[in-house]
């Protein structure tokens, strides 16, 4: 089974904590031991936001800010690589071909950002499509996709499952409001829909939730069901 796991910066590196990075690496290694081929994509978190904020104050334009964000995601990717054993490609893949080659060689491949105008959510979706992944997992700071932002709306309800087209609609509504954050970005949602990619959005603040989700489909987040896609098959069955 081939899996791409997107580890949000808010989850991997809300601050610099080697034990947290180690815990994520352990999950990736455990999945690899189970025979999964793994691509990981790492976000920028609070450090990226701090750098972007400082550079904005200094007059940088949006593309320059994105480039700073990409650099930070790649530093976080290096942290995850440092925590993974010999099975990982020691280079942070800068494009999908490099990442795909590493996976085909049998290595775990780790990416950060690739180009301005998007986030690592979209990188993970494109990576998953490029390598024909069986599953894409977003480990983020909320336990799935909700009808509204659960951090600000106490009446928000979680989608246990939703069609990829519904995900696009929900995300498009969020992205209409400036400065808002979303469980995945709009480009990622569109790519998931186009690729008919089976996708899970879950709370990755405790990384041990990722393994049962990948191996057995057991999680309490949101399943994104591809329209016209295959029924899920689980590695452990
Ligand atoms: N409809 C929604 N469903 C789930 N989360 C939402 C929604 N709208 C906004 N959010 C927000 O999206 C954010 C997603 O996590 P974020 O902190 O950006 O993590 P990451 O580092 O994984 O990108 C959360 O802060 C959550 O409050
Ligand atoms: O392919 C990419 C990935 C990231 N970024 C930039 O890097 C920041 C941090 O990436 P992350 O995916 O963590 O974004 P977040 O989830 O914090 O919005 C983003 O806001 C963008 O500015 C980018 O421009 N292109």
TrEMBL record:
SUPFAM superfamilies: Carbamate kinase-like. Residues 1-203 form the Aspartate/glutamate/uridylate kinase domain. GO terms for cellular component: cytoplasm. Keywords: ATP-binding, Cytoplasm, Kinase, Nucleotide-binding, Pyrimidine biosynthesis, Transferase. The keyword ATP-binding applies. One of its GO terms (molecular function) is UMP kinase activity. Inhibited by UTP. It catalyses: UMP + ATP = UDP + ADP. It is found in: Cytoplasm. Its EC number is 2.7.4.22. Homohexamer. This is Uridylate kinase. It comes from Haloferax profundi. The gene is pyrH.
């Amino acid at each position: 089974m081939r899996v791409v796991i997107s580890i949000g910066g808010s989850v991997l590196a809300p601050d610099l904590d080697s034990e947290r990075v180690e815990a994520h690496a352990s999950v990736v290694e455990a999945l690899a031991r189970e025979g999964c081929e793994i691509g990981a994509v790492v976000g920028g978190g609070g450090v990226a936001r701090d750098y972007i904020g400082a550079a904005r104050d200094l007059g940088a334009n949006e593309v320059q800010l994105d480039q700073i964000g990409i650099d930070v995601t790649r530093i976080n990717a290096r942290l995850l690589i440092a925590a993974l054993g010999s099975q990982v490609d020691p280079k942070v893949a800068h494009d999908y071909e490099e990442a795909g080659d590493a996976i085909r060689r049998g290595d775990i491949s780790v990416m950060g950002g690739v180009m301005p105008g998007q986030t690592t959510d979209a990188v993970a979706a494109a990576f998953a499509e490029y390598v024909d992944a069986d599953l894409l997992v977003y480990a983020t700071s909320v336990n799935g996709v909700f009808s509204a932002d659960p951090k600000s709306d106490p009446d928000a309800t979680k989608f246990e499952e939703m069609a990829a087209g519904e995900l696009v609609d929900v995300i498009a509504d969020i992205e209409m409001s400036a400065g808002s954050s979303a469980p995945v970005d709009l480009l990622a949602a569109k790519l998931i829909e186009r690729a008919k990619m089976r996708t899970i959005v879950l709370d990755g603040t405790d990384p041990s939730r990722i393994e049962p989700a990948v191996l057995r489909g057991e999680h309490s987040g949101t399943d994104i069901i591809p329209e016209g896609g295959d029924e899920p098959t689980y590695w452990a069955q």
